[in-house]
Write a structure and sequence with these properties.
Blueprint (H helix, E strand, L loop, with lengths): L1 H21 L22 E2 L6 E2 L7 E5 H6 L5 H4 L6 E5 L10 E5 L2 E3 L10 E5 L2 E2 L13 E8 L13 E7 L7 E9 L3 E11 L4 E12 L4 E2 L9 E13 L4 E14 L4 E6 L12 H5 L30 E2 L7 H5 L10 E17 L2 E19 L9 E21 L2 E21 L3 E23 L4 E18 L4 E8 L4 E4 L5 E2 L8 E17 L2 E12 L2 E2 L12 E2 L2 E14 L4 E19 L6 E19 L5 E17 L1 H5 L14 E9 L1 E2 L4 E12 L2 E2 L9 E2 L2 E12 L3 E8 L7 E7 L4 E6 L4 E9 L1
Parallel strand pairs: 7-10, 14-18
Antiparallel strand pairs: 1-2, 3-9, 4-5, 5-6, 7-8, 9-10, 11-12, 11-45, 12-13, 13-15, 15-16, 16-19, 17-44, 19-20, 20-21, 21-22, 22-23, 23-24, 23-25, 24-28, 25-26, 25-27, 28-29, 29-32, 30-31, 32-33, 33-34, 34-35, 35-36, 36-38, 37-38, 38-41, 39-40, 41-42, 42-45, 43-44
């Protein structure tokens, strides 16, 4: 009821605000319009090579979305940006994650859907040059953002570890030099009630500050038939403070602080199907024999048969937006192993502070220091059996802290532009994973520590005025340590498949990790070479080679009988690329194209050959693809864009463990569509001297893809088309009213999934259905 009241209030404020401000005379011409118009013919600035360059001049496959474009398309999350990027998959809802706040990100077929602290992402995320190490909570809401850049292909030299698929760079808007601000209210489907606000306050001619924040509320879209709250809701707040001090003509210091608070329901997973369990699986890997649970109800269990009430009936498969997923784990038992109650929840707290120093030593030499400290505290539950009866219920706790320090020295010596740098990261964390079955609880986890240092150098030499050679190299030294919990245990009553009796372990829990955990150490060189040629001021071509590296780690999700903590090796990619960038028609048309061939080695593949999905080095793969991006401003006030991409991603070699888990040489890599297409059309139509109408429509198509490594039939998402639209009425007086919609065709499609054959069930998460929003914004 409170959310409904919030929505009514926001609609009233929006309409009354439009009426009030609409009656005001237009302010001075220097006032901001309600929605920023993209400057005609403006060059987009990117920092793909650690220095500011125009998008069309940098010989790298990079896509950039400006603040004006974000607002014109009513994009408020980095996840929505991924719909318009070739060969990129950015889906919220990692299979073992927190729901809408944890992504699965893949670029050119390389990425990760894992959430464990023992693993690493495959696509690097940087906010104001600060590396975000963990995927949990990284579906960032775009609060006061200046631009989003997506670098495709390995970025191992300048951006380093875990950027072998590519990198996402988010740049915050810098404080204004005058008192200014904005407030935006938005309502919509699912009792949406959002507010965003910012205030820029210059404290002096040299010191500027900015404070921005947001609050989002949306009901869930997966109905719980047991009466619990719907899953998939959005309930979060975020704030950001920026101070920028121009200490002198040569020295600038920035300080940034941010926080995010998320209090949402469990992931919106539903049951997709029930399958026979794998026959003959040895104890203790076979969950149905340990816990007397067999999800499918139609296989030969040792202690269960189709009449067992713990089996899941076929009637529990209820479609994409309904579940029976109640929680029944005894809180008293559960709380004896954890500090938080068991229930339907996803809670995340993120805090960060960073400092940036830029010192111009001379016109040709500058120094930059970036220091940051961030913390993550996350907790989420899930009901994998999707029934209100005792089945499979899990709880995850993560507590992570990271400190990073980077130094950069950028110079220009004659025909050589160069950058030298050093990077250090210290990361610590604790993880607890609890899986509750009808009569037994598995508890695993431990403490993690990572220390990584790196040094890098890259230079671009102008051989001739048109020919440029870039060479770069990075050295990384990384050390990891994992201290297991002293009480990794089976707790409760388990079934003994040999004697066919039950064993009571509540008084004497059994530890199931018996060996020591070795420390891990990785060292790696990641080179880069690029040769570009400017045929004219409107045409540039390039060829390049890059090597990417993703560090190895530990498997945190454990099962009984594990002698030592499993670990896995790093994975590597060697990528060869050729591309061109061109402009035409007085620079109103821009063209970017690239083709690539990559050898992907020692893939860290998620396999399900035991009680839980685990990572292993499963083999090698080859990636071949091509990309095209177009932008055209045929006349003033009209902006057209389009993109297309192709990706052929298949395995060359598989390990025996990967084969046993169901992966075949003919399988496609997960979350990779062969074809992607898309485009947008935006218009700025003057109505009066002070009013303009700004319609925008964008669409994208993605061909079929599998959401798991084994290409499970139920986790195949067929091709689909998405259409989004926005209509904005803007005034030079600073106000605007917008009506927008996402997934206007109301497509139903999967964004993640998990096949757990050993318990006989397959679950998945569907994207949010069609949504509309009405917004009002005022800038001053």
């Amino acid at each position: 009821m409170a959310d409904r009241s919030n929505r009514v209030a926001i609609i009233a404020l929006a309409l009354s605000g439009a009426a009030f401000f609409g009656g005001m005379p237009a302010v001075a011409a220097t006032a901001d319009a309600g929605v920023q118009a993209e400057p005609e013919g403006a060059d987009i600035i990117v920092t793909a090579r650690r220095r500011e360059e125009t998008l069309q001049s940098v010989p790298i496959a990079v896509s950039a979305v400006s603040a004006a474009t974000l607002e014109r398309r009513q994009i408020d999350s980095v996840a929505q940006v991924g719909e318009a990027i070739p060969n990129m998959t950015y889906q919220t809802g990692a299979p073992t994650g927190t729901g809408a706040s944890t992504p699965s990100v893949f670029i050119r077929g390389i990425g990760s859907a894992e959430t464990s602290l023992g693993t690493e992402p495959g696509v690097g995320l940087y906010v104001d040059d600060v590396y975000i190490a963990r995927s949990v909570g990284s579906v960032l809401d775009l609060v006061s953002v200046d631009s989003v850049q997506v670098l495709r292909g390995p970025q191992g030299t300048l951006f380093g570890r875990n950027s072998l698929g590519g990198a996402i760079l988010i740049r915050s808007r810098r404080p204004a030099d005058r008192l200014s601000g904005s407030v935006e209210l938005k309502t919509g489907r699912y009792d949406r009630a959002d507010i965003r606000a910012s205030l820029d306050v210059p404290l002096s001619d040299t010191l500027r500050t900015s404070l921005s924040g947001m609050r989002e509320r949306r009901d869930g879209y997966v109905r719980n038939l047991d009466g619990d709250k719907a899953n998939g809701n959005i309930h979060r707040e975020a704030a950001r403070f920026v101070a920028e001090w121009q200490a002198s003509d040569m020295l600038k210091i920035d300080v940034n602080a941010d926080m995010t608070r998320i209090r949402e329901s469990a992931p919106p997973s539903v049951l997709l199907g029930l399958v026979p369990t794998i026959p003959g699986t040895p104890v203790p890997s076979s969950i149905q024999e340990i816990s007397n649970l067999q999800a499918g109800c139609f296989g030969g269990s040792v202690l269960a048969d189709s009449g067992n009430p713990r089996c899941i009936d076929q009637g529990a498969i209820l479609g994409p937006f309904r579940t029976l997923g109640g929680y029944s784990t005894d809180n008293a038992i559960f709380d004896s192993q954890g500090s938080r109650p068991f229930g339907n929840a996803s809670r995340i707290d993120i805090r960060g502070v960073s400092g940036r120093l830029e010192w111009t030593l001379s016109p040709e030499l500058s120094f930059k220091s970036i220091t940051a400290y961030r913390t993550l505290d996350a907790f989420w539950t899930s009901n994998s059996d999707h029934t209100p009866n005792p089945g499979i219920e899990t709880k995850n706790d993560q507590d992570q802290k990271q400190f990073t320090q980077e130094f950069q020295l950028l110079g220009k010596t004659g025909s050589l532009d160069w950058v030298l740098g050093a990077f250090y990261m210290h990361e610590t964390g604790d993880a607890l994973n609890v899986v509750a079955f009808p009569q037994v609880i598995f508890r695993s986890g431990g403490g993690f520590k990572t220390d990584a240092i790196a040094g890098f150098a890259q230079g671009t030499y102008r051989i001739t005025p048109a020919l440029n050679l870039t060479l770069g190299l990075r050295y990384t030294d990384e050390r990891k340590k994992y201290d297991t919990l002293a009480n990794q245990q089976i707790i409760g009553v388990i079934a003994d498949p040999v004697s066919r009796t039950f064993v009571d372990l509540r008084a004497t829990p059994i530890p199931f990790v018996t060996g020591s955990t070795p420390n891990l150490a990785f060292t790696e060189f990641t080179p880069h070479a690029n040769l570009s040629y400017d045929w004219s001021s409107d045409l540039m071509t390039y060829v390049s080679y890059s090597r990417g590296y993703k560090s190895g780690g530990y498997e945190q999700r454990l099962a009984p009988g594990t002698p030592t903590i499993p670990s896995f090796r790093p994975e590597y990619v060697d990528s060869y690329e050729a591309g061109l960038k061109a402009t035409a028609f007085d620079r109103s048309l821009t063209i970017s194209a690239a083709a690539f061939h990559a050898k992907y080695k020692d893939l860290q593949i998620s396999v399900v050959d035991g009680p839980a999905p685990t990572l292993t080095n499963g083999g090698d793969a080859t990636l071949n693809g091509a990309e095209l991006e177009l932008g055209w401003r045929p006349v003033r006030g009209v902006t057209l864009t389009g993109f297309a991409s192709y990706l052929d991603a298949g395995y060359d070699r598989l390990t025996p463990r990967a084969i046993v888990s169901g992966i075949r040489l003919g399988s496609r890599l997960p979350s990779t569509s062969r074809w992607q297409f898309g485009g947008s059309a935006g218009f700025d139509v003057p109505l009066t001297g002070s009013l303009s109408l700004r319609p925008n429509v964008d669409w994208s198509y993605r061909s079929a893809q599998y959401l798991d490594s084994a290409n499970e039939r139920l986790l195949r998402q067929k091709g689909y088309t998405l259409v989004n639209g926005a209509l904005t009425l803007a005034s030079t007086a600073g106000w605007s009213v917008s009506l927008s919609g996402r997934n206007l065709l109301d497509r139903t499609y999967l964004v993640s999934g998990l096949a757990q054959y050993n318990i006989g069930e397959i679950e998945g998460q569907y994207a949010r259905p069609r949504e509309w929003a009405l917004g009002f914004k005022y800038q001053f």
